[in-house]
């Protein structure tokens, strides 16, 4: 059976480095959405909790309910209001026209559009939003934004920072004790100074991506299904995309694109961590390569596969099927 190994010490070290940078675990919001970026939210939750993390962000209510016993504060980022919101959770208000659909008394964080133009209200709508929040008796607990280009060397990051500073100033004139947060993983390692009046909403950096001083947490393994000698001139897999130039001992391993791997089509050189090349096209449930034992590490750094497939590490990680067992090592 294919397997995901989670390096507990690496995860703990990453969180400790992040906490050191921001100053205190109470200032950290760990983003656990989409099964903790494919790493396994339930397996990581108790580790984060033991390190003092008590605030996480998730995608939806389903994820919130799965983790409610671990964390006091859970922010739901992609919620469609239905009038039966749970008073234990905090809900992102992403669209002002939906505000009347929230249950009275619901805890909310107001999303501000400072330039991402994806979710959130414009700065010009803030006063109107406050009036509606008060009229509908919603419980405003915070305001936040998302940087569109914190990892790009242009001025947009600083423009968004300034806009959010204006929002914080205005919001705190109207409400006491608001939690404000704008810094994501990219902003955390770009900025020279950390804002002292904000929380930090950190996702991918927890898992070792975004800074050279962090450690990769996840390794993906496959296990041997069968082996054989591929004779010179014989091919393996669909479409005969690989043919042996000499007799070659190969094996087939139990991981394919149904498990979340990208479908390698046999073109170009895609290597496993032991520098063995995948031979032929990846199938739905398996791939082939030179025989290399009962267990083989497919990757321990998603950037390698992301670069090959011209995408980002996030996509490689979150596509890993939740049914693949995850264990701490």
TrEMBL record:
This is Alanine racemase. The keyword tRNA-binding does not apply. GO terms for molecular function: alanine racemase activity; pyridoxal phosphate binding. Transmembrane segments: none annotated. Keywords: Isomerase, Pyridoxal phosphate. SUPFAM superfamilies: Alanine racemase C-terminal domain-like (SSF50621), PLP-binding barrel (SSF51419). The modification N6-(pyridoxal phosphate)lysine is found at residue 33. GO terms for biological process: D-alanine biosynthetic process. It holds the Pfam family Ala_racemase_N. Its cofactor is pyridoxal 5'-phosphate. Residues 217-329 form the Alanine racemase C-terminal domain. The keyword Isomerase applies. Substrate binds at residues 118, 284.
């Amino acid at each position: 059976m294919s397997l995901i190994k989670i390096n507990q010490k690496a995860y703990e070290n990453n969180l400790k480095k992040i906490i050191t940078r921001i100053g205190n675990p109470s200032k950290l919001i760990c983003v656990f959405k989409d099964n903790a970026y494919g790493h396994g939210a339930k397996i990581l939750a108790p580790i984060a909790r033991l390190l003092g993390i008590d605030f996480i962000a998730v995608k939806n209510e389903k994820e919130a309910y799965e983790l409610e016993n671990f964390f006091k504060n859970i922010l739901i980022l992609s919620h469609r209001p239905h009038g039966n919101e749970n008073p234990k959770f905090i809900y992102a208000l992403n669209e002002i026209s939906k505000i009347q659909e929230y249950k009275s008394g619901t805890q909310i964080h107001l999303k501000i559009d400072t330039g991402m133009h994806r979710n959130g209200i414009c700065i010009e709508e803030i006063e109107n939003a406050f009036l509606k929040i008060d009229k509908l008796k919603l419980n405003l607990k915070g305001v936040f934004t998302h940087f569109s280009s914190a990892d790009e060397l242009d001025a947009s990051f600083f423009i968004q920072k300034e806009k959010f500073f204006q929002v914080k100033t205005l919001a705190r004139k109207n409400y006491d004790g608001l939690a404000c947060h704008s810094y994501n993983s990219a902003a955390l390692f770009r900025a020279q100074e950390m804002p002292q009046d904000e929380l930090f909403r950190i996702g991918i950096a927890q898992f070792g991506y975004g800074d050279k001083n962090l450690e990769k947490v996840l390794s993906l393994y496959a296990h041997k299904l069968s082996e054989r000698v591929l004779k010179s001139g014989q091919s393996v897999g669909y479409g005969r995309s690989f043919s042996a130039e000499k007799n070659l001992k190969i094996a087939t391993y139990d991981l394919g694109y149904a498990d979340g791997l990208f479908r390698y089509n046999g073109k170009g050189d895609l290597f496993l961590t032991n520098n063995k090349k995948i031979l032929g096209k990846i199938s739905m449930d398996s791939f082939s390569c030179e025989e290399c034992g009962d267990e083989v590490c497919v990757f321990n750094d998603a950037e390698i596969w992301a670069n090959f497939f011209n995408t980002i590490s996030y996509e490689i990680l979150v596509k890993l099927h939740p049914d693949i067992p995850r264990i701490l090592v």
